[in-house]
Amino acid sequence: MLSDGILSDQTLRGLVAESIDIIREAYVGARNPIMLYSIGKDSSALLALCQMAFAPGRLPFPLLHIDTTWKFRQMIEFRDNLASSADVDLIVSTNQEGLAAGYNPFDHGPAYTDVMKTQALRKALDSYRFDVVFAGARRDEEASRAKERIFSPRDPGHRWDPREQRPEFWSNYNTRVTAGHTLRVFPLSNWTELQIWRFIKLAEIPVVDLYFARPRPVVERDGHWIMVDDGRLRLRPGEQPQLRKVRFRTLGCYPLTAGFESEADTIEKIIDETATSTYSERRGRLIDRDAPASMEKKKSEGYF
Amino acid sequence: MRDTLRFITCGSVDDGKSTLIGRLLYDLGQLRIDEVETLTTDSRRFGTRQDDLDFALVLDGLEHERAARITVDVAYRFFSTGDRDYIVLDSPGHEQYTRNMAVAASGADAAIVLVDARRGVVEQTMRHMSILAMFRVSHVALVVNKMDLVGWDHETFKRIESAFVNIASQLGFRSATSIPTCATTGENLVDSVVASWYAGPSVLTWLAEVSPGMVDPAAPFQLPVQLVLRPTSDFRGYCGRIAQGTLRNGDPVVVIPSGKASTIEEIYIGDAATGQATAGDSVCVTLAGDLDVGRGNVLSPPDEPLSYAAQFRAQLIWLAEKPLIPGREYLLKLNYASSRASVTAIRSRRDPATGSALAARQLDANEIGDVHISLAEPIPYAAYSESKQLGGFILIDRETTATIAAGVIQHELRRGANLTWHLVNVDRQAREQLLGQRPCCIWLTGLSGSGKSTIANALESHLHAQGRLTYLLDGDNVRHGLNADLGFDEADRAENIRRVAEVARLMVDAGIIVIVALISPFAADRQRARTLFDRGEFIEVHVDAPVDVCAGRDPKGLYAKARAGQIPNFTGVSSPYEPPLLPEIRVDTTSQDLAECVSLILALMS
């Protein structure tokens, strides 16, 4: 994972060291830690950093994937491939009640995200009694995330209180919480999207193929390219699947994740494209536009 | 070579901090199209500038910040120009949110302090400057903003600049630059200014030229141990982030504080054995031989070992709503080491308006104080001026787990070292033999009128009759002499109890059975007294009776006066009593008679 390229890049070298320090510090204070794994590039980078923190030993905690059953098929293949390796323990959890009640991305809008992601996560955290939860959020993703501390205490309902954040000085982290409370820990807080890609390149970290531009069957919907990943995508009148060379900047549930046309089919090209992009990364995440300040609202309800 | 500069923007509310950064990002083309779209919509919804873009909305990312149009917490923004990556820590200006500004200051290499050209340096500017000085932010620029509103008047700028230069030199900043701007229009943020009288840098030029807190590669290495990794029985790795210097395979090391020596066998960064690593790297090292090394220890070079101590002089900023009171016990965390600790004295607090030192008995929220701090056990440290990692600490409230202070170590207090501990020939064991008794401290706590003095007297008479050497320390009596200078507020009560506990300890060391009768209403103070004694030597007796019963007895007529408002801070009336959760003995003086209470205590003593 470590390479000369990382060692000679002072910015990346510092970020790697900071993340490892955070991961170890959170681990020391934890009784039952877990890493949230979303199969995306940030999760891939975070997993590599968690492994680096405990090398040459094995990663001492499992990963948790909240499966809404609407992820891209290539994401699930990638996940299952990872889970079959001896280095990683993976827990997959789905909100079965939400599934049985038929929640889906087409009919339920924001309620779908709440039931199949936020509630699903809270249920899984409660049932396994995890007390320290690693997640791959970055401050440069979005304005409310730009405000969050690295160690973020949560009340027994997993809520974030942005008005009363715990002061955080230097890298001197207070990892204590009172009974029933938990900690969210964000080791990638100070990374940018571009630095994540440079790290993925230099550390040779595998990522899902959906990040690379390939001809894919898509429909144009509300100015976005939505991939026809399986037969469940409900086509609107006049929508005709067509092959376009598209890629995805962020990954999630395929009906809610927009691709864009691109020629970037290598990591080098992705890095160039990211550096010169005139749009932010979240543009492809359709759920962030449900309501103004929607990310803060989701976060305060316990969403990652 | 790429490097990173972390800088804070601070200053009083409405001086234009968030606007400055929002505008800077916009002018640098670092706001993306969809961010500008959002900004345009938000400016119409929340903005304060009619149809113009309100750049502060780029930074104020929280719903309540946008609704109230103020910055509450730090925003972290990232941008790059040339070979430099920047992390902006945009901090709030309101006094109420000073602690969030302090958070940002602790992580910054450089600072931009904004003032409004119409108002110049105000109290909040001074407060922020004091905090920047405490956290040793090396480079400071004063940005005199809203110059358009004073017609770019040179005299105004010069007046503010000279006030700033005075303050900066008084607070010990190494460099201090003043820059005139207008953030709403972007003048002098990226490109230089229009005013003919100004030849200095723009904000961006200044940021590009200051050097980040560069580490000294020649400094002796210090590797604090964060975690001991034992994946298999034959691998033991010591993990941590190197605080300073360079570490190489084969380097001799000494473990601080144990003094055990070894050598570095292998250094890992992640899964790669690198042979060497330097300040800032998070590593895992293996050592020759089997050593007892734990979290909080430091691996240090034998010829320049790190110091360790248990008593410090420090500066701290108090963050909690409840004031800091000397004598209370907290948890101190310095890098990876932690220890129980208390502030033993407040030497002074800083006047926020002038920066000068004032006498103080307590510290309130957002105040900076110069204090003495005492730890239960020594920890490895460096002065904060030498190492932020090994000289900065936080205090944690053990009950609420809140972070209630951040502090920087100035130097060790050599009180203990200069006053050498004289070993004496006649020791405690010899005295115990002479007296034929096992000394201890019986600590009676309870409300006024609960029966403490009555029980204490009866107990002492009984012991005396058995031929025991005893001494009764009664709360009322010590206040006539030893503690005549103390009143009844929380700080004085804590000090009263501290002194009585120390006297009791001396007497127990002398071989005497000591009985203390003291209301001692606060659990933290009793807990602190307990820590002075060995296990089994401190017997806490809760003399329990409901407050109404005590008030009915009222042997000294105090409850009547307190309820009439004539005695402030009277326990049970206008000041709380925190009953012990796990006392050695609890006696109920409403249901148990005196003989019963005494025999319960005697039974536990034998």
Which terms summarize this structure?
heterodimer, A: 304 residues, alpha/beta, Rossmann fold, 2 domains, six-stranded mixed β-sheet, globular, B: 606 residues, Elongation Factor Tu (Ef-tu), domain 3, eight-stranded antiparallel β-sheet, 18 helices, 28 strands
Binned strand content of chain B: 25-35%
What oligomeric state best describes the polypeptide chains here? Answer: heterodimer
List SSEs of chain A in N-to-C order: HHEHEHEHHEEEHEEEEHH
The CATH class label of the largest domain in chain A is Alpha Beta
List how many beta strands of chain A DSSP finds: 10
The CATH superfamily name of the largest domain in chain B is: P-loop containing nucleotide triphosphate hydrolases
Measured as a percent range, the helix fraction of chain B is 25-40%
Give the CA-CA distance, first to last residue of chain B: 74 Å
Give average pLDDT of chain A, whole number.
93
* Terminal residue distance of chain A: 26 Å
* Estimated radius of gyration of chain B: 30 Å
Strand order of the largest sheet of chain A: 3-2-1-4-6-5
Measured on Cα atoms, how large is the radius of gyration of chain A?
19 Å
Question: The CATH topology of the largest domain in chain A, please?
Answer: Rossmann fold
CATH topology of the largest domain in chain B: Rossmann fold
Describe the global form of chain A. globular
Textual characterization of the structure:
The complex is a heterodimer of chains A (304) and B (606). By secondary structure, chain A is of the alpha/beta class. Chain A has 2 domains: 4-204 and 293-300, HUPs (Rossmann fold), CATH 3.40.50.620; 209-289, no CATH class. Chain A contains 9 helices and 10 strands. Chain A has helices at 4-7, 10-28, 41-54, 73-83, 96-100, 110-128, 193-202, 267-276, 294-300, and strands spanning 33-36, 63-66, 90-93, 132-134, 151-154, 182-185, 214-221, 224-227, 242-247, 258-261. Chain A has a 6-stranded mixed β-sheet. In chain A, strands 7-8-10-9 form a 4-stranded antiparallel beta barrel. Chain A is globular. By secondary structure, chain B is α/β, with parallel strands linked by helices. Chain B folds into 4 domains: 3-209, 3-Layer(aba) Sandwich (Rossmann fold), CATH 3.40.50.300; 223-300, Elongation Factor Tu (Ef-tu), domain 3 (Beta Barrel); 307-414, Elongation Factor Tu (Ef-tu), domain 3 (Beta Barrel), CATH 2.40.30; 428-605, Rossmann fold, CATH 3.40.50. In chain B, a hairpin with a 4-residue loop joins strand 11 (252-256) and strand 12 (261-269). The longest helix of chain B is centred in the C-terminal third of the chain and has 20 residues, at 490-509. Classes of the chains: A alpha/beta (304), B alpha/beta (606).
